[in-house]
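Hello again,

I reread your note about wanting to compare the complex against the isolated chains. To keep things tidy I'm splitting this into two emails, and this first one only covers the full assembly. Below are the input lines as submitted, including protein chains and any nucleic acid or small-molecule components. They are followed by the predicted structure of everything together. The single-chain runs will come separately.
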Amino acid sequence: MARFLTPRILGRALPVVACGVLFLVPMLTDDRYLFKVLTFVGLNVIVIAGLALLFGFAGQISLGHAAFVGIGAYTCGYLTAARGVPWIVAVIAGTVLAGVGGFLLAIPSLRLKGHYLAMATLGFNEIMSVLFVELRPVTGGNDGLRGIPFASIGAWKIDTPAGNYLLVWGVAVVVLLLTANIIRTRPGRAMRALHGSELGALASGVDTGRLKTEVFALSAGIAGLAGALYASSVGFISPSTFSLEFSVLLIAMVVIGGAGSLAGPVAACALLTLLPYADALIPGLSKELIALIQDWEADISGFVMILVLLFAPGGLAALGRRLGGTSARGAGGVQ
Amino acid sequence: MKMRGRLLTVVVVLALGSALVAGCAQGKRGASDGTSAKPYRIGAVLSLTGTYAGLGTPEQNAIKLEAARINAAGGINGRLIEVFYEDDGTDPAKAVAAAARLIEQEDVLAIIGATGTGQTMAIRSEIARAGVPQVSMAGGSVVTDDFDPLVFQTPWPNRIVVPFTLKALKARGLTKIALISDTSGYGTDGHDIIVKEAAAAGIEVVAEQTLNPGDTDMTAQLTKIKGAAPDAILMWNAGKEAAIVAKNMQQLGMKTPLVGSPGNGRKEFIEGAGAAAEGFRFAAGKVLVPAAYGTDSEPYKVANDFITRYTKAYGTPPDIFAGHAYDAFLVVVDALGRVEGDVTPGSLRDAIEKTSGLVGIGGTFSYSATDHNGLTMEELVLYRVADKTWVLDQ
Amino acid sequence: MNSAELLQFVASGLQNGAVYALVALGFTLVYASTGIINFAQGEFFMLGGMLAVAGVRAGLPLPFAALASVVLTASIGLLFERVALRPRRDSGPTVLIIITIGGSMVMKSLARHAFGPNELSLPPFSPGVPIVFAGASIDRQVLWIWGLTIVAVVALTFLYSKTKLGRAMRACSLSHDAARLMGIDTARVVMISFGLAAALGALGGVAVAPLTQTAFDVGSRAGLKGFAAAILGGLGNPIAAVVGGLVLGLLESLSVAFISSTYKDAISLVVLLAVLFLRPQGLLGKSRREKV
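Full-complex prediction:
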């Protein structure tokens, strides 16, 4: 039995099982709250996939990804709610616009390193926050943008929480597969070289400038895609959602998950997103306990972040490797 | 490849976890049906953490106090009231999840909330889908201007307060005003209505400045305003920046009268601005000085009773936000008592819409099929700060 | 616009700028000895104000409350470094930075539990009418802020150039390994810089609280502005941090004067980004090889 379950076979079988189970959930329950919460997790997982690629593999920090989520959300929301553009077109527009934004930000930012890059992206996030509030004809200002229609393709309308859950997780699985594929192939190796040493990467023939710009644009585009899906599944967006705080939390998820890993950040993302909704996963918690958890949520998240990194500086990925007893092959990128 | 294997392990664990939970949640829902004597279930979405924690906390205090009082007196129609509180962390997305939870898992009849305008608007689609009435404690005009048959509101919206304030300015001969508002939803809403209504009220706006929540010095904006030489400065915001504006004016030696919004009716403003608060005027409901009602009137007794009990329970007198929450809870409870036949979200909504002459803290509420705010300018008075407290400005 | 008005705008800019500078000094100190950005720096600013208010409420005279608050915040800084950061000293900057983010979340939330969600007031250090200088009026508390900023810069410059500890700190900023080989106790140096950074942040928080009140959530904005100031000036030296803070403050108030109060924060950030793109090492930063 043990011999039968080699990593190779597991690697083949697990995706099928995972997708199967994920997509079976709607048959087991009709709890719309649970779907909402899991949809949030799925949306964050999409952003995290792109950010893990950028930060965890290419080693480029971004404290501005919430702004890209916002660009995607507002583009999709405005086009569908105010302009009546078909949903799929609006989602593509949001994704592309966020990607182009990332590209444009990446060009001058290429010269910056480390903390200066962090500041540039952080500044970008703050500037976009001001614009989300002030460009009222498009964004609705602080009152937010309401009445964003649900996802629809032609006459087929995805207007139930279960439908949205499936849509978001469907996209999330595709994005995860895409990212995993990029990591496994040539661009991934180039990125890891870049993370290790830029000089070394240059010497081995990697066009570091182009690579950095492309990865930045790609991860911004993925964030925009998540934003577009957020807009159509929640139906309401307002500026405070896309704040610097969210950007910081996203980076924290990647680091807690472990740089140079995709599974770790996804796990960290699920953990931190689900924390305030503990009652969705553990039924029967008392009202008082839930209120207590909500009241202390920031403290708990903060402590979890500190403890994980204190005891597993390589993040959840390294912890998983240690528990699994496997050799740390994927740890090459961990700084 | 290892990495992919691990990624998928995580996904599988997540998926299995949610499936398991889904099963459990099912079981739980099945078991929750009880007898007819079960309590009425009311949800409350409040900002207990995040930026609006200072508003949401007194709101929760007020609702807890009132729920306990009503239950101690035997409840409504012989049934107790159970309130389920949810914290939205001042985040619209969390507010949506909170509303979904209250509707799906707690089967609430009505939702009180949210604290902020953004959160109130965000949960509309949840409300609409479930047909549950919502009584908001947010003051944004958009809450009831953008009419939704399910949504009611207890604070005085800017739509009412602004014309009242402009009229009061005009009556005092202050016709050239400079406007300073913050860039939050409340400030922007007030700004827009002031600019729109000024001409009709015979008021000229000679300068417009904004401040951002969190700003720590407003002397730059005030220097601009000083150059425009207004008769009065009208300030529209609800945060701690108000005290800084008052102090900066004093620093700059500006004797121009400063007039604010109901959001400034907080003791923190008087503490923060100190001597600079003296002479500050703002419009708000009569609760701050209940004697404004006339000491033998019904509203006076209601307000006085609430203030006494709240002060006793929490060691500090209620602010206007506690008052808005009292009113929101009162509106729901009053309607519960008037529902004929089965209490469902739908029948409760209809009963709320028929609310008439209900004496609360913020005023006397009378809703109708076209007015879900239910207050008029009659509920407002102008206050002045004198000797570190509020007095009526006659 | 007359000269008195212009001077008033400059005074306003320098007032905010001095507060940014105090926070930026903290960022710079920690960066110089560890190479990391301490995202909890803004929370030290918050703690300074809050603890001073708590002291006054407990009946301490204001000067003692202010001093106690700075000392207590410095101890919290030391403790935080010792408990949460030192065990992971060799893990590379990103892990340490995220630990400081976790620390800032905990400090902010604990402050709300301890002191409540409302803003709190602190009395002014020396009450009295504002000082009028060439038509611009300046609050007495602002003079305290300026004075404390100058004292902090002078003290830090002295520390860096004249004392053994300062030399050790500079050695650490160049290379931890080399410093260790020279017999410097690098762990101690790092811990002391955290304590000093926390003290500086707290000093800013105490000094500004009488003007603006304070609350559990003032730290994020202070941290953001301080970080921007430190980057604008160029990370790693105290003078650059102060210059960065003052320039940032002036940019904001002059934006109000000449462009728009609504966009003042955005404008100053656009200028900051422009500076970064043209001079990636900041206004006063020396272009040096990237530390590994």
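For quick reference: Chain A touches chain C at residues 61, 108-109, 111-116, 118-120, 122-124, 126-127, 130-131, 134, 244-245, 248, 251-252, 255-256, 259, 295-299, 301-306, 309-310, 313, 335 (CB under 8 Å).

B.
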